[in-house]
Amino acid sequence: MTDQIHPALYPHDRHNILVLMLMYIALFLLFFGPRLNSDSAHYFEYVHSIAHDGDIHFWNERALYSPRYMPVFPGLNHKKTGFPINIFTIGPALTWLPGQLAINFLANSFSSFSDETALNTSYSLASLYNATVTSSLLLFLALILLYRLLRYYFSADCSLLTVLIIVFTTNVPAFAFITPAFAHNTGFFCVTCFLYSWLVVYREGDRAPTVLFVIVGASLGLLMTQRLQGLFFSSVPIMHVVSVLLERLRNRGDTNVVGLIGRYCIAGLTACLFFLPQLVSQLTIFGSPLADPQGEHGMHWADPSIWIVLFHQTRGLFVVNPVYLLAFLGLFFLFKRDRLLFFLFGITIAIQLYINMVRRDWCGVGFGMRRIIESIPFLAFGFASLLSFLEKKWGRSRILKTGVIIIIALLSLWNFLLMAQYYYGKYGDPGETLSMSFHQLVRNQFDEAPEYLMHFFDSAYPFWAVLRCIKNGAWLQSASIMLILIVTISLFFLFGHTVAQLGRHSRIVPICLGFAAFYLVGLSIYLFPNPSPQRTIVPLQLSELTAQQHQINTGPMLQIDKKDIYPGESSYLLFGPAGIFLRKAYWEYSMSPFLSHGKLNFQDRFLAPGHQELDIHLRPVQNVKSLDLVYGLENIPPDIQQPLLRIELIPENEKKQVLFLGSADLERSDTIVLPLNWKLPAHPETGRSFWFEPPAEQVVCRQISLPLPETLTVHTITIKPVFDRGLLTLHGLALGIE
Q1: pLDDT tens sequence across 295-320
Q2: Of the residues 129, 169, 358, 572, which has the maximum number of CB atoms within 10 A of its CB?
Q3: Which stretches of 470-613 are assigned E, i.e. beta strand?
Q4: What percent of the chain stands above pLDDT 70?
Q5: Is the pLDDT higher at 423 or at 37?
Q6: Rounded to an integer, what distance in angstroms lies between the CA atom of residue 566 and that of residue 405?
Q7: Is 301 exposed, middle or buried, given 0-12, 13-18 or 19+ CB atoms closer than 10 A?
Q8: In which element (H, E) is residue 342 found?
Q9: How far apart are the C-alpha atoms of 219 and 656, rounded to whole Å?
Q10: What contacts 303, CB < 8 A, 6 or more positions away?
């Protein structure tokens, strides 16, 4: 081991870091795609809500759907607060928000934007690049920092090869480039900073400067805002203190235990300070700072699925990324080098695996066992220890080097082909994965995956997008994308060089810590929930569902009554060819081997049956002459005589117009067929609705126009089902204007 805490970068190290930079940038140009889908859509909701609305209430964010922005949970509200639920953490948004504020400032400085356009600005391509490039950049910096960390203990060649193994053979590239706006890139960065600073504390003990303990606490607190399970990485300093106490009891150590504990208390207070934004967000959304965003029954602590998580035939950790077997094997070689580190790292990784084993959705959404990514800086010591053992045993043998290169090449090929299967084949579908055998998975690697792999190069990725624009003669667009690429690559080199040159006495780190603390505390105070007015104006962004395009248009303004919120509110309103789509979600929990403890099944219903009222408050709409409905009927007796629906239109003079939809109206209504992708816009790359499978058959329903005796200026519509049996589903509602 080297005795230097921050070893100097020798020419060979600079060469290795340059190689790492070039390899990462090459993968970035080939595979990077700015998209907000699944979890990342909900992370970005924080950014838009803070930057545009100054809160984290998500009313208008849930009303916006587009091929690039597709939330997973579009319509769940908390019973206590009434606010839309966001089960994801605020951490990634904390890193994206400064860039988004800068984008908004520039946009509003150089153009006169209306409120609606400003809303679109926050979902523009620049905003997507801000979030995704920032996350990819932070992972890039973490890899350089990890190289320097490994150089404390291993040779330059072992350190470089370890980092390249992580980049090419694990599931890291899937989240670094293909879905970069998940929380794993920022989480990886925080873990690396945490481990980097803690190892210095570990080596120097109570003699380590206080700023290192502050970095340990800040990294841990910020990590918990990215991934709540980051709290369990606190086991590292806790076990460190316990080990020092045991050494003192045996009279074998000279560490000042009281001083060490005192400085770790400073680290703990710093962690709480940097975790403050997450506590504020939980207080706002769930009514309690200690609420569990994942809800009940998400963890089964006494029933870990050990075999499934590690060896499931298609989703197990060692099946998807077999390279992790080498990392776990290499940890045993760390035992000879440093026994205490071996136990600390082994227990920490075991805790993280256990958390994944007791989760209901143990494999989650995303390529591979993604929740292990934050543990990779610890596993890197396993990779490096194994390589170091081989290096010492066989020296510079060409056979050894060739064998290692061949193994890494084969694992990399397996990894990227399996990624192609996941993102473009049946392997990414949970139902198909359940029915797929390991034999079929391997066969698809040869039969289908090579063709799927080429899809990465036929999509909206930077390098290929430029070539496609040039080929089509779109010179201005190609120049714009090229400019973005030049700026992005320049940032990679600038920040990478800065991190590579950081020294022990660098002032950059304390200055960054100070700014970060000021930023996070100020943001927490700003977002701390205040008594809000009982009625809020919510602007809607509405997506036109057409086969040719997905154009965002401006909709009406809805007023949401927070005292008595309709469960659907603005989250469920989606304009299409038939009018306003109203969606209400029901979640069903059932046992399934895929999730080991249960599966969430999604069902759609529109406007709950019974006597539940729906109040729609509009900005006054003038010259309304009719009300158009698109609805379906289920299990309603054909000879029913009573009205099916009571509709009240309230004009400005408060004189109600009452309309009824009854059995006689059924005869004069028109039968229409809703498009197959009526639930959500079809994704441009897959051709199907994201997350929701299109219905097996087209939805057949009825459409009717109910005329008014006189034209009105309507500001409220009340709809109430009044039938006793059966179910009437309301698919669409629109106002006919004179």
Answers
A1: 666 677 788 888 888 988 888 899 99
A2: 169
A3: 535-543, 552-561, 573-576, 579-582, 584-590, 599-605
A4: 68
A5: 423
A6: 60
A7: exposed
A8: helix 339-357
A9: 60
A10: 358, 597
Under 8 Å between Cβ of 35 and 44: no
Asked if 184 and 175 touch (Cβ cutoff 8 Å), the reply is yes
Which range has the top average pLDDT, 27-41, 121-135, 437-451, 474-488? 437-451
The residue type found at 401 is: K
Distance CA 342, CA 332 (A): 7
Q: Where do we find the tokens 């990819």?
A: 136
> What's residue 684's pLDDT?
40
| Cβ(366)–Cβ(321) below 8 Å | no
Q: Nearest-5° angle of CA 657, CA 660, CA 663?
A: 165
Residues linked to residue 733 through DSSP beta bridges, in sequence order:
629
Q: Residue 212 and residue 71: Cα distance in Å, rounded? A: 39
Rg, Å, the chain Cα set: 28
- Backbone phi, psi, residue 140, to 5°: -60, -45
**Dihedral pair phi/psi, residue 256, rounded to 5°:** -75, 100
Across 510-517, average pLDDT: 89
Per-residue pLDDT reduced to its tens digit, 20-36: 999 999 998 888 877 77
SS3 call for 55: coil
- With b for 16 or more beta-carbon neighbours within 10 A and e for fewer, the 458-475 pattern comes to ebbbbbebbebbeeeeee
Query: Any residues with CB less than 8 A from the CB of 530 and at least 6 apart, and which?
Result: none
Strands (E), 18-96: 36-37, 69-70
**Mean pLDDT for all residues in the chain:** 75
For residue 502, give both structure tokens: 């950081």
**Considering only 83-87, 260-264, 319-323, 636-640, which range has the smallest mean pLDDT?**
636-640
pLDDT digits (tens, 9 = 90+) for 48-83: 889 887 888 876 676 554 444 555 555 555 667 767
User: In sequence order, which ranges of 151-171 are alpha helices (DSSP H)?
Assistant: 156-169
* 128 neighbors 141 (Cβ within 8 angstroms): no
What is the distance between the terminal CA atoms of the chain, rounded to a whole angstrom?
82
Q: The tokens of 385 are what?
A: 């220890």
Q: Where are the alpha helices (DSSP H) in 32-114?
A: 39-48, 91-110
Neighbours of 177 (CB within 10 A): 23
- Strand, coil or helix: 58: coil
d(CA 711, CA 734): 15
Tell me: the pLDDT tens digits for 525-541? 998 876 443 333 333 23
How many helices and strands, by DSSP H and E, does the chain display?
Answer: 25, 14
Round to whole Å and give the CA distance between 75 and 84.
7
Residues β-bridged to residue 719: 614, 647
Q: Is the pLDDT of residue 677 over 50?
A: no
Q: Tell me how many degrees the CA angle 657-659-665 measures, rounded to the nearest 5.
A: 160
Higher confidence at residue 526 or residue 624?
526
> What pLDDT, on a 0 to 100 scale, did the predictor assign at position 4?
41
Cβ atoms of residues 120 and 69 within 8 Å: no
Picking from 183-192, 304-313, 659-668, which range would have the lowest pLDDT averaged per residue? 659-668
- Cα 112 to the center of its chain, rounded Å: 32
From the CB of residue 58, how many other CB atoms can be counted at a distance below 10 Å? 23
pTM for the model: 0.77
Q: What is the mean pLDDT of residues 461-470?
A: 66
Q: What are phi and psi of 712, to 5 degrees?
A: -130, 165
Contacts of 94 (CB under 8 A, 6+ apart): 222, 225, 277, 519, 520, 523
Q: Which two tokens stand for residue 190?
A: 């925080």
714 forms bridges with which residues in the sheet? 621, 651
Report the pLDDT averaged over residues 387-396: 82
Contact 179, 38 (CB under 8 A): yes
pLDDT number for residue 274: 96
